[in-house]
Amino acid sequence: MTTKSPRTHLAAAVLSLLLPVVAAAVQLPPEIQADRHLVRAERAIDEQDFLGAKAAMDDILELQAQHGLDLPAQFSFRYAEVLERLGLYAEAIEHVTEYLTVAGRDGEFYREALELLDSAEEMLRRAELERQRAAAAREAAEAGRRQAQARQMEKMVVVPAGTFQMGCVSGRDCDDDEHPVHPVRISRPFALSRHEVTFDEYDRFAAATGQDRPDDEGWGRGSRPVVNVSWDDAQAYVSWLSAETGVRYRLPSETEWEYAARAGTTTAYSWGNEIGRNRANCDGCGSQWDDEMTAPVGSFGANAWGLQDMHGNVSEWVEDCWHETYAGAPADDSAWTAEGDCDRRVVRGGSSIHPPRNLRAASRGGAVAGFGFRYYGFRVARTLDGP
Fold this sequence. Notes:
By secondary structure, this protein is of the alpha+beta class. It is built from nine helices and ten strands. The chain has two domains: about 20-130, Serine Threonine Protein Phosphatase 5, Tetratricopeptide repeat (Alpha Horseshoe), CATH 1.25.40; about 160-385, Alpha-Beta Complex (paralog of FGE (formylglycine-generating enzyme)), CATH 3.90.1580.10. Helices cover about 40% and strands about 10% of the residues. Helix 2 packs antiparallel against helix 3 and helix 3 (about 50-65) runs antiparallel to helix 4 (about 75-85).
């Protein structure tokens, strides 16, 4: 059995005497507690700490609610002053009105209260006008985004989900980088622009963002595909377009591009294995623009899915990093950005200066991402909502 020392007994006795004193100090009468909060509030006002002053005055109001304290009328006026400084105009109006009602014309702060009431009402009116202007601006911006989205979607084609063999399946003019042929599954529909982005479209982006307008080589702007744009420029464009429309646009992946270019076919071109005449713009395609300049977009017929200019006119940037072969390539619609040479990006479709073999659906090339060339352009893609 442990025996407590006399010192331990003494400490316990002193503590038992102090506890009631501490409790008594904590349990001050509510009127005195309110005075302490009022002192803190006045000090906070002197220090321009209006949040602190409001907190202290809120404590006083809580004491009033709990204990039925009789607060002087000027408390409502002082509280209204603090609320007005914090921009809480509706609450300030409520409390200064209460002061004027109770104190009347003989109130100590009658004139000041009238001025505070006028000021708070005016500031409340301005705040409401600003709220209405901001709401109208948001509505206008949202309407603008919806209109921009609708305009852009008119230029898009929905490409269905499906599977295909990617690579040189036609056996015509195959290159090593088009192998191994491999199956790819496009798991969900996506949207792809009907034709390449035009100068008209790109120039609106340049004007809106302060970007330099690319050179048109003297061929004309308007409905011709934009050229002299790098992969980086194309990324800046799709970021801007996404902000303008409120939905995410992007470059297509290489698998999406080839899938869309084939439109369900396995031939070298979407119309067959021979280039034919006047089906595209290239060096040897039989068009009026061959090996000279770009053609206005949509100058040639669409493929089975409604897409135009997938073969020729301008080579198109896609999202993927450059890989020398398809060894290890994705089996889905995702962009291949792992490993590879990401300083170079894939270009597809061939251009007006390329021979027909470079226009094949399977043909691919790589170019430095930061370099724009007079035969490089792009088109945009969008992931669609849904399962």
